[in-house]
Amino acid sequence: MRAVVQQSGARALFLRAGQIDLQNGMPLRIRPVIGRLPRYVDLHLVYNATPSLLAGLEQVDEAALADAIAAAYAADTTRAALDQARVVGLQIDIDMPTRLLVRYEKMLAALRRQLSADSKLSITGLPTWMQSADLRSTLNQVDFWTPQFYGTDIPTGSDQFIPISSVRSVSRFVTQAREIDKPFYAGLAAYSYTLLYNTAGALVSVRGDIDPADISSAPDLELVDQRPFEQSATNASPSECRYAYRVLAETVIDGLALRAGELLVVDTPTAESLRASSRAVRELAGEKLLGICVFRLPLAEDPATLTIAQVVTALADREAKAKVDVRIFPDQSAANEWILEVKNTGTADSASDKTIIDLEVPPDALQNLMPETAAGIETLCALGNNSPFSDRKPCSPRRANLIRFKPRALRVGQTARTRLLINFGLQTTVPILVHMQTDTGEQYENRLAVAIEGSTP
Predict the structure, then answer these.
(1) DSSP β-bridge partners for residue 246
(2) Which CATH number is 2-189+271-315 given?
């Protein structure tokens, strides 16, 4: 986490410190934060609601809810002092229905009375609140708020084309937030939604924690559609991307059970879509803008988010770039067995099925392909002039002088591998051509001379 904070230049970290649950009619904090609290950044401890509390909000006493949150915050600040962490405030993350904002105001007022003068109190907010006459008085109880400029509408049918966020919606929401004239952080989304629809096209499940790479590489899923949510007449606009997969056979991905005929839709942000949204925020927010709050912090164990490199690139208003690294190294299990490893080290994702890695090899060098990777491998031969990487046709592995590796997907940070049974002889480098189309439509091509690791000159 420290590396992420340092790379991003974050001035504050909003850290979930637990959830408020409803047990026997009374609110109670559960799932407290574990581990040592970071001491290198200002902390706002965040408390959100369980589904049980959300379902019972109309029956919960406002003072009792305030007491539960205040007790949790007091315990957590005491613990933070032992860790020498800098806790500067707390944030309430409750998706309060707009009609209950008056009750929310009462709870916040009761909570404020229990906090020290130097503790900042803030809340997250829904875009729908900004149409309510009760919002301003609710915000009078807090020091600032973090309206979430995303996730307003969830597509309940597979035929609906609704992104998590768009530059157009962000521009509209940030303009409304500016007119409220309350200090705010702009909440922007940097994570994927995965939506499962049944055979009738009705929404079954929404997940925000599944690795899109696991979906794109699953053998029982067929990619049937991929496109940006917004597209100009000439090219893709900075936009989130939608990938739709047909389930071919019953399977399970990260605990999500899928049945044949169902549709799995993945809505993924891009560095360019986050860049465009953050630019809109800076241009339209006005003087009350405190900063941009990215949901969620891109940690290694959360592959559903953009990487830290993508987030930093976007917030710095730099163009996302494609970059692919290639390695060839020996597989220790048998002689002449090699691993071809391809990794996306740039800040732009590859569009599905749009990455091609061509290896130029001597004729008769390739002895066999590994069965488990044959579907992603083609063997090709020269047609006439034998010029590298051109004029090829399919041929047998024994005759081939070009190996074409085609990963199903290559997201930023993702690695694809295949095993080859090949005799390189005295060869120490391999000419390789990398071609990739990014999710924003960019065509990336790079010619390399890749060293064969472990070879003898």
Answers:
(1) 222, 263
(2) 3.20.20.80
325 vs 333: CA distance, rounded Å:
24
DSSP 2: H
Q: Classify burial at 457, counting beta carbons within 10 Å of its beta carbon; exposed 0-12, middle 13-18, buried 19 or more.
A: exposed
pTM for this prediction: 0.87
Residue 284, CB-side half-sphere exposure with 13 Å CA sphere: 20
18: region left, alpha or beta (phi > 0 left; psi from -120 to 50 alpha): left
Strand ranges inside 333-374, DSSP E: 337-344, 350-360, 366-369
CA 201 centroid distance within chain: 25
Is the pLDDT confidence value at 205 over 70? yes
Q: Which of 2.60.40.290, 1.20.1600.10, 1.10.245.10, 3.40.630.190 is the CATH number of 324-451?
A: 2.60.40.290
- Per the CB < 8 A criterion, the answer to whether 131 and 98 are in contact is yes
Give pLDDT, residue 129.
96
Q: In what order do the strands lie in the sheet with 392-394?
A: 392-394, 377-382, 402-405, 350-360, 429-438, 443-451
Distance CA 112, CA 119 (A): 9
> Which residue has better confidence, 334 or 132?
132
Q: Compute CA 359 distance to the chain's CA centroid, rounded to the nearest angstrom.
A: 31
Instruction: Write out 19-54 in H/E/C secondary structure.
Output: EEEEECCEEEEECCCCCCCCCCCEEEEEEEECHHHH
Token readout for 360 is: 């130029």
- Of 372, 40, 363, which Cα lies nearest the Cα of 219? 372
Residue 11: DSSP 8-state: S
**Which pLDDT belongs to residue 372?**
47
Chain segment 328-379, per-residue pLDDT in tens: 999 877 778 899 999 999 999 888 778 999 999 888 888 877 644 445 888 8
Let me know if the fold of 2-189+271-315 is the same as that of 324-451.
no
Sign (positive/negative) of CA torsion 78, 79, 85, 88?
Answer: negative
| Per-domain boundaries in the chain | 2-189+271-315, 324-451
Residues ≥6 apart with Cβ < 8 Å to 96:
57, 103, 104, 126
pLDDT over 90, % of the chain: 68
Instruction: Give the pair of three-digit tokens for residue 442.
Output: 């960019």
Q: By the 8 A CB rule, do 171 and 183 touch?
A: no
> What's the whole-number mean pLDDT along residues 283-297?
93
Picking from 245, 254, 238, 342, the residue whose alpha carbon sits closest to that of residue 304 is 254
